Amino acid sequence: MKNQIEFQDATPSKAVFKSIIADYDAKAAICELIDNSIDVWSLKRAQDALNIDVTIDIQRQVIKITDNAGGIKKDDLHHIVGPGHSSNDSNESIIGIFGVGSKRAVVALSPHTIIKSRFKKQPTYSVEITDDWLKDENWKFPVYEISNVSENSTEIEMTKIRDILSGQSIRDIKDHISAIYSKILTNKSINLKLNGERIKPLYFDKEWSHNPDVPPKGFDWTARVGGEEVSVKITGGLIAEGGDSGHGEYGVYIYCNNRLIVRSLKTPEVGFSKGQVGVPHNSISLARVIVEIDGPAEQMPWNSSKSGVDIKHKVFQLIREKIIDVIKHYTSASRNLFPERETKVAPFKQGRVNFEKIHSISEIEKSALPIIPKLKKRMPDKVKDLNLSLAKSEPWIVGTYEVVVMAEGIKSKSYETKNRIILILLDSSIEIAFKDYLTYKVKTHFYTDAALAKIFEKRHLVHQEIRKYSSGVLDSSDWNNIDYYYRLRCDLVHKRASATVLDSDITKFTVLAKKIHRKLLGVKYPALKS
Question: Which InterPro entries does the protein's record reference (predicted)?
Fold first, then answer.
């Protein structure tokens, strides 16, 4: 049994505004207002070009956004004030649906916002959203008729901006909107300006490395979700412009209805965790995956501020596993090619992405992706592996071969004085090898600690002792070269800092150092030339 006894008022408190502006910065707020302009223009199927002008005055701390998207009818003015009010159809391929964006944006940015709008040839109306109005629980708001602005235009002026804007703020906002609207701005009928300067798109799908062994690959299919069609593209590849910092432009990029939602995403939701892709690291900073989703707004897996992915959304859940598969594939390729990126990745900047039309997301299998080139083992790892067992029983050899590895690494650098550095390192490796030989190979039978200490004080005494035990191992030519390079090293350190060290000298001296290490200590090097 139930008896209705009354109706109660569930009108929301204006405190709802405070709850929806948390963590809302100027970049996100300005984008919400730009989104609104684009949606109004798109839904009207307007023939005229759309012009959106964003003006930021850091002296007066004022932001003004104007557009010619079509204006707002007087009877629709409540849409720009009431949370959840929207004239947008969620079945349309638009970028606004929640009915909170423009309200949240103006409240987040400013305590005093004036909105002026004119629909066609109708009068111009003005609405003000102020902190005083927000403090009053009455939801009614005054509408003013004012002097006309241009037909089909809207002006939003926000004063006394809550967060201080600076020159850096403007640069950050410019970079942000250049990226967010890069695909939308390919429509030549849309003109977006910031302080009078036309925004140039910042693309993330133009930097692929087209190495024929591991080219970028795209997959394109249409899915039915909730009875509606959603188009999905997933493109993966290596980027020609990689970096060493580990914080570069790599990871996952997701666009919804051509609007960038997340940039350079590297979170567990897209595989960046142990056991999957791994944690972000410079060795995987060449990998990028771009996801493009188009369809009804209600099927877009974005959050209400369009600044992140709704990981629980059914569309994201549908494609998440395959996003991880593709990013995992190309991060593996990045790890393998990263040591040789300057020759195997960076030069291949020309080419086209091969898109494969598929009928089901399950068709994205590893076999459909390019084979990853095998990892070319780096010199330090090669030398370490070759001497692994010897280093366990004779750990002192590690210092000897690591000096040579360091010298080899410097060869590929562009230092002007690299040959001098290499010569000093190689000479040091020979001195270390000689002293280790006397200490660990012959000391027990012939030397006391005091005797060795005295020998080690003078390099020529070290050479003199080694000659006693190197007959048949090092010939007179070897000793002539040892003495020559030692004198050259002394000149560099103690006399002539400008002494010339030729590439041919470095090649010969490297071979000699490796021969000494091998003959006296048993150290192994790959492709050793005697």
Answer: HATPase_C_sf
